[in-house]
Amino acid sequence: MIDHPTQSTPPHASSLKVALAHDWLVGRRGGELVLDAIINTLAQDQHTITNLYSMFDIGDPITPAIDALPRTISKLNNLPASLRRWQLFRYPKAVAYLTKQLANDHQTNPIDLIISTHSAAIKAIAPPSPSIPHICYCHTPARYLWSQQTAYDSPGFKGSLRSLGLRAATPTLRKWDLAAADSVTHFIANSTHTQSQIHQHYHRDSAVIHPPVRTNFFVLPESTTQRTDALLLVSALEPYKRVDLAIDAAAIANRPLTIVGTGSHDSQLRKHAQRARTRFGSRALIEFLGHRTDNQLLAHYQTASAFLFPQIEDFGITAVEAQAAGCPVIARNAGGALDTVSDNPNTRTGTFFDQPTPEAIADAITNAPTHKDTAQHCRNNALRFSESVFSSKLKELISQAHPQACG
Length: 407
Prior knowledge:
Elements: E1 17-25, H1 30-44, E2 48-57, H2 64-67, E3 71-73, H3 91-108, E4 113-118, E5 134-138, H4 156-180, E6 186-189, H5 192-202, E7 206-208, E8 231-234, H6 243-253, E9 257-260, H7 266-279, E10 286-290, H8 294-303, E11 306-309, H9 317-324, E12 329-332, H10 337-340, E13 350-353, H11 358-367, H12 371-382, H13 387-401
Helix pairs in contact: 1-13, 6-7, 6-11, 9-12
């Protein structure tokens, strides 16, 4: 077992050849930002990344560091993107293909280390030699298999069909997923919540290294007077994100709500917002903005009165980004929010609600601290999750996992 890393700087590292593995390269979200930070950390110590292995790759730009890497993609990528969610039963075969490609590449370009970033299946990629360590940065054991199956239920015929298929495949996939954990020599959890999930489902210990947050970009506004009374939610529009609860709560509290993000439930949630305003007799504007640039997102963080975080999240980078910009968070009293939000009266950065109901969230909105009282506390708290802290802890763990990394 590896001890939990500290923030101390490890000795100067010798160069390693590293293979990276990531579930899918289909957008720029929290997992991809972690992958980007891992690449930049490896570059700081002059490690060489030999290849990036992934099940899917839609080919769109993600980050300059990720885009510059050579890639090996599974044959699942030959299917239309719309079928990705229907191919769960083929994930084991896809990762087996990537494992074979990694072994072939190792023959001509040997590697010293594998680092995978996992939320679905990619941790199953196996080292070409038992002597090669495999560090898995685990965002979560697959939620649709272990902890939040019902949260992936979807309305309509297709949604029902997908839910039935998932339930039928779950026993077999769970058995495979548990066995796949054997390919990992060192687990990193992105939060204490994920750490407990890894222990519960995989029976493995892990070190906690929180994801990096761009606290140098997401900063306090120049003036606190520019805040409005609008609530903000930044999220993928997917069932388990519980955006529906935030919409209902805003309607009950009669507070405007700005929703930033895209996803498969966009149209359903827009209809839900219309029904919620009628149901609760609310005049509050519920606005869907879709995708926003980083600069636009920063402006929202700097002007919103509070940030809504209704789901159980494994970590939740957006909640920390909001705090970095001085915006207090209203969060479910569970999951990664317990690591990132403080309700200590002396350092309060938000408020929690216990039950996943619109009424509970509406009460929390009413009792939330104001940005004037918490802005600096929010900022100070967010700095615990900066990119430099992440890099320092990752370097130390690599040096423990691979002695050659210390010179």
